[in-house]
Amino acid sequence: MNKGKYIAGLIAMTLLSAGILFGCDAEQEGSKQMPDTTGQSGSGATGGKRELTVVIEKKPPAEQGIAVQRIHQISGANIEKWLSDHELEIQVTTMEKQATATEEAQFSYHRFQVDLETGERLSIKEQTGADQGEVVKASLSPDGKYSFIQTWKDKYLAVNEIKNMATGERHKVAVDNYMEVGGWIDNDSYVLAAGSMKDRGEIWNISVDGTREKIELQDPDVESFTEFATGNGKIYYTDAKGRMKSFTPTQSRPTLLAKDVSTLSLSPNSQQIAVSTSRTGGQEESRLLIYDTGGHVQGLLIGKGDLLSHQSWSPDSSKLAFAVYTEDQGGMNGIYIFDTVSGKVSPLGLSYYPVYPLSWNPSGTRLGITVDDKEKLIVTHIVDFKK
Q: What pLDDT was estimated at residue 132?
């Protein structure tokens, strides 16, 4: 036997017996699964013996998972909005009168600005006069240059405006609006599904100068929009049969993307869609999957349970927070974070279920979670992640 071949074979057998085999996981990037040659007849110099192939990854694996640094707790309050990475506006709920057999409980509500770094809390003056009772909701364009503003005089009708954030100039949008459904389809246009008292109503493409154009949608299977998202030139929604579809302002016939869909959440960069499935066709659990915008599933399911809700993307689209409830305590329960870089799902170790939407700060380093509390009505936990 050739001496060089003998030494090479000895090294290979030593590595195998020690359990040292690099790149054997076929799921790792850069590795290849080698065929099993056991029992196959060899030829030439191999003499029918198995060969050891060492495959080394071309690049190191991405850092996986998340780490919690600390958790802030705010009693009796929910998050209204983030003002900066460490400042937020909260609403504090106080019970003024306990419920009785004949009367409902009475509550009061007060707003505060909270600084998480200093702990300072400043009261925000309540609206008075003609503006009392109005609800104002604003949505910034992706580039932050414009804002679509809805001022709800009551729960049935809103006044809509486009605001130039640099100049403060406002353009009124002449449409009747019964719903809050809508979103920026690009930097220059806001799509509003205005709704109606009778049917799904009109869909409008609103330009930043306040002009609007009707968008046609030829789909008899949608009566109202319960799931609706916009971005990167496309509009996504679910129809009455739980099918996720997409269309564009110039394409009236929609494209079918997925079936048995309960909820959808488009990432801020408009590249991925988090989809929770409905429990149909004998399926025992709802599932959470990630799709691309063409309707293709990306990887394996990231969550499953009796109820999946409150999907919330971090502003940079690198993480997805979601809540799971499963009656079986051995299943998934609580808040989880999906890391899009590593593909790993990590539990936060908080088994409670949120009663308000999950809320990220602008940089995605903090997550707000509001839950029920027997003594304090509600409690908001703000999780700081290690950078």
A: 56
* pLDDT reading at 247 higher than 70: yes
CA gap 29, 157 in Å, rounded:
53
Q: Give the DSSP letter of residue 129.
A: G
DSSP 44: G
Architecture of domain 68-385: 7 Propeller (2.130)
CA 165 to chain CA centroid, nearest Å: 26
pTM reported for the whole predicted model: 0.77
Residue 87 · residue 69 · CB < 8 Å: no
Mean pLDDT, rounded, for 338-362: 90
Q: How many CA atoms lie within 13 A of 189 on its CB side?
A: 19
CB 112 within 8 A of CB 121: yes
Q: Are 298 and 272 in contact (CB under 8 A)?
A: yes
Q: What is the pLDDT of residue 330?
A: 78
3-state secondary structure of 14: helix
Closest Cα to residue 193, out of 210, 207, 173, 178? 178
Instruction: Kindly report the average pLDDT of the chain as a whole number.
Output: 82
Amino acid at 36: D
Mapping DSSP to helix (H, G, I), strand (E, B) and coil, where does residue 387 land? coil
Question: How many CB atoms within 10 Å of residue 355?
Answer: 14
pLDDT at position 293 is 94
Give dist(CA 192, CA 194) in Å, integer.
5
> How far, in Å, CA of 370 to CA of 321, rounded?
13
pLDDT at 50 over 70: no
Q: Which of 226, 82, 77 is nearest to 140 (CA)?
A: 82
Q: Which of 36, 35, 27, 31 is nearest to 54 (CA)?
A: 31
Q: Is 359 helix (H, G, I), strand (E, B) or coil?
A: strand
Domain ranges of the chain: 3-46, 68-385
If you search the block for the tokens 């990037």, which residue do you land on? 29
Residues 6+ apart with CB under 8 A from 27: none
Helix (H, G, I), strand (E, B) or coil at 365: coil
- List, edge to edge, every strand of the sheet that includes 212-215: 182-184, 189-193, 203-207, 212-215
| 280-297 average pLDDT score | 85
Provide the pLDDT confidence category of residue 47 given band limits of 50, 70 and 90.
very low
Q: Which residue has the tokens 């106080």?
A: 94
Taking the C-alpha atoms of residue 26 and residue 37, their distance in angstroms, rounded to an integer, is 17
Which tokens hold the place of 279? 């429990």
